[in-house]
Amino acid sequence: MKTILYLLMIFGISLNKVHAQNLNKKADSIILSEFKDQNGPGGVFMIAQKGNIIYQKAFGKANLELDVNLTSQDVFQLGSMTKQFTAIAVLILEEQGKLQVQDAISKYIPDYPSGDKITIHHLLTHTSGIKDFTKMKSLNEIAQREMTPKTMVDFFKNEPVDFAPGEKFDYNNSGYVLLGYIIELVSGQTYADFIRTHIFEKAEMHNSYYATDRQLIYKRAYGYHKKENGYVNKTIINFSIPYASGALMSTAADMLKWQNALNHNLLIKAETAKKAFSKYKLNNGEEFTYGYGWHLKNINQSPTREHGGSIFGFKTMGVYIPSADIYVLGLSNCDCNSPTQITREIAKVALETLQKHN
């Protein structure tokens, strides 16, 4: 009997290794189809299941001038994946009784045009209709200025609205800048300090930051563009511009800590978190596939929570499949290489491979 159990155990271990090797090969193949230049900027990719890393690799260079290879510990700018943190910060404040997502923004910013008709919920779900500042021609005039949250809001608040609140879903960075400003007004902390104390420190994300070019960041990956004549350093932008819509930095390991913190209700209660991961309806009753800070889609009929990011020199993508507890992350330090579709393809392969095994 002991011999049979021993053989079954050995067989199980061997089977695990085979599945892991197959998944590794498939992931490598998918990544290398896009990230072909190992002497150029590259990316870091990770697959985790049940909170544990089962695949993690770095491809390409962290710094071209110094010929430094990327490692899985490197710090990347997240771009719009920042919106996840902003949304959870709002829900933390709601649990503290300091705001409600159905509050009109005029309660916090009395002079905001038509602020009595726009709610925090509208900002979270990209249904506010306010002008997205990234589409304004005058953005170049302020791109390298140090802006306060108020001056950033003043930059776009008097622009004509695109539609009435709740009429349609239209991805909007201005809404998340407004949310950052409201977080500051309500909490009495800067956005950066609030995220650090209420999220980064609680989740033990010790290598995550509000982005800056003015302090040394250990193992920072440098960002690049690709032009006709080759790679160039990323365009400089003051991080007070993307602010709460796109100014955070992190590592693959810290982003897994973030996902685990959400799964274990470390930051907010499960009941509160449902608000972030629920689909909502427009005024006409039509459902759209965005919660608070996450796109809500499907892979092989399995619901996913996902979001990408794009900021000068960087592109990012994260996909979480709740039913299988699979988290897949892609971080790129050139906006010439998008990890969006790659990360979704790896998530699909991981789901199929791990479901077969289980």
UniProtKB/TrEMBL annotation:
<feature type="signal peptide">
    <location>
        <begin position="1"/>
        <end position="20"/>
    </location>
</feature>
<dbReference type="InterPro" id="IPR012338">
    <property type="entry name" value="Beta-lactam/transpept-like"/>
</dbReference>
<dbReference type="InterPro" id="IPR050491">
    <property type="entry name" value="AmpC-like"/>
</dbReference>
<dbReference type="Pfam" id="PF00144">
    <property type="entry name" value="Beta-lactamase"/>
</dbReference>
<dbReference type="InterPro" id="IPR001466">
    <property type="entry name" value="Beta-lactam-related"/>
</dbReference>
<keyword id="KW-0732">Signal</keyword>
<protein>
    <submittedName>
        <fullName>Beta-lactamase family protein</fullName>
    </submittedName>
</protein>
<feature type="domain" description="Beta-lactamase-related">
    <location>
        <begin position="37"/>
        <end position="336"/>
    </location>
</feature>
